[in-house]
Write a structure and sequence with these properties.
alpha/beta; D-Maltodextrin-Binding Protein, domain 2; 3 domains; about 280 residues; 5-stranded mixed beta sheet; 9 helices
Length: about 280
């Protein structure tokens, strides 16, 4: 009887031991699965929260807002912009500002950074050609049909971006000189730090008209007069990745989107052309 009781107890112990082992195994498997899912979720969250900072010429304010929305939806990478005059942004990069990408309003400032070895090799490329217009705000009583009318009509204040820091301002001066208008118009010129401020001067009545990029003029905002591109140097705009950026892969994704058919179509809708057109 004692042997049978012992055998029965021993058998019960084996059942409990097996059950415990099975339970331990199931807990171990669940733990491994949970850890794997947590890591995967963490990686997904890390990707979706990735962020790049782009130093961009002020003329790109509106178009880059749309581009970043589409880009983030495709990649999960968020874009933070610092808009300003091209020369000012270049100087900030030279001084070590933590940007990942530089989108210039010209080629020269990108070349200057490349000569200082501050750009990631083989990332510099022209992505668009800008177009300059004379903008007369909605509600203005001025009646202008051509640039030459600036010298004839009662235009008291003309806003342009500073030509020494803003390529669109430089193109404005070149065009007015080519038309022999600069000496007559210069006394009435109000200089702005960048093209968005130039537009703001005219929009708020601090200037009667403004020379600004076509990309900043929205439908129904007023009248525009095209500035013949033969009157100034082409406004080819270049982009590049900053060499010191710790987010090279995400920055490259942004450039790839800019040059994709979708990115180029967005630029075209805002009045930009391809540089070879």
């Amino acid at each position: 009887m004692r042997d049978e009781g012992f055998a029965g107890k021993h058998s019960s112990f084996r059942v409990i031991a097996k059950s415990s082992a099975l339970l331990f195994f199931l807990i171990l498997v669940c733990s491994i699965i949970f850890i794997g899912c947590s890591r995967q979720s963490s990686q997904i969250n890390q990707t979706s929260s990735e962020e790049i900072t782009v130093a961009a010429a002020a003329n790109l304010t509106d178009v880059f807002a749309e581009i970043s929305r589409k880009f983030t939806a495709r990649t999960g990478v968020r874009v933070v912009y610092s808009f300003g005059a091209t020369a000012d942004l270049e100087k900030q990069i030279e001084n070590g500002a933590p940007f990942d990408v530089f989108a210039s309003a010209d080629v020269e400032h990108v070349v200057a950074l490349d000569r200082l070895n501050l750009l990631t090799p083989n990332t510099q490329k022209i992505f668009a050609r800008g177009r300059l217009v004379l903008w007369i705000p909605q509600g203005s009583s001025l009646r202008l049909n051509r640039l030459e009318d600036l010298a004839e009509v009662n235009v008291e204040r003309v806003a342009i971006a500073k030509p020494d820091v803003a390529p669109y301002g430089r193109a404005t001066v070149e065009a007015l000189r080519a038309l022999n208008l600069w000496t007559r118009i210069e006394p009435r010129v109000i200089y702005a730090q960048n093209v968005t401020q130039t537009k703001q001067y005219a929009a708020t009545g601090n200037a009667d008209v403004a020379f600004i990029p076509l990309s900043l003029v929205r439908q129904g905002e007023g009248q525009t007069i095209d500035v013949n591109e033969q009157l100034h140097q082409p406004i080819d705009q270049a982009i590049a990745i900053i060499k010191s950026s710790t987010k090279q892969e995400a920055a490259q994704k942004f450039l790839s989107f800019i040059f994709s058919p979708e990115g180029q179509a967005i630029l075209e809708r805002y009045g930009y052309r391809k540089s070879d057109e």
